[in-house]
User: Fold Sulfotransferase from Eublepharis macularius.
Amino acid sequence: MPLRTYLNYKGIPLPTEGFSEESLSFTENEFQMLDDDTVVVTYPKSGTIWMSEILGLIWHNGDPAWVRSAIVWDRMPWIETVDGLKIALESPPPRLLASHLPFQLFPKSFLHSKAKVIYTMRDPRDVLISHYHFSKILKVLKEPGTVAEFLETFLKGNVIYGSWFDHIKGWMQMKDKPNFFWITYEELQQDLRASVERICHFLGKELNSHQIDAVVENASFKRMQDNKMSNLSTLPEEMMDHKEGKFMRKGICGDWKNHLTVAQKEHFDRVYQENMRGVNMTFPWE
Ligand code: PPS
Assistant:
């Protein structure tokens, strides 16, 4: 049975299982980002696997064979995990990589490279609810308690990868750089086709209309729900309680409305306003 305990790497809580201070330090200080690397970066539960699927499909011109035959963390290794780092180091360029790291712990070499980062954000209230449910089934995460309790844990940043606010503010320092692209889960939901076109444009990858259709179709919630290489159903029972819930849970915007009381929403909004003061950007959930 995995332990539901966290290590603390430079103030950021991470599961003890699958992570080590040594490999986190290597990723931060020694990992070499290559100019032709593309990295999917997110705060957890913001659409990481969705974006990974989209990129995997774009990479192969809409052909789903690869995303249906290779498990997502082999296709796009998580550079901060012990196993993911090893796979990333062995992968031939051009590499597709993934990370949840906050900006300050991301490989330093990124700042001197042309590696591309695609940063996906999501309404933090939906992130909270998605994380809450995921904490009940993924056995390396601490038990969330009640929604009210988890709301406080989340707002204080006492969750894996730390504070949502710090993650956003850290990465938004990059927002005007040519090798940085940001998009929201809400935009993907609203118009996946237009989002795929924008991503292709950023990557300098030209797909024809049929290929874009194929990306959109194969990255739908339904298709991904049925793709065992992406839906986490292959995780062993000792890691994930498949009877209690699914990784591909609802895949909608605004599910927080089914979980937070009016008072909890107002409390969330107050903390949001305090933390996002000075961020001169507008997001679809505001
Ligand atoms: S993780 O564990 O941090 O990697 O999770 P992450 O992939 O970032 O986010 C999981 C949520 O993304 C939803 N999801 C999707 N929504 C819409 N369409 C597609 N294709 C899709 N794929 C994944 C997934 O259902 C999780 O959200 P919730 O709200 O829990 O359903």
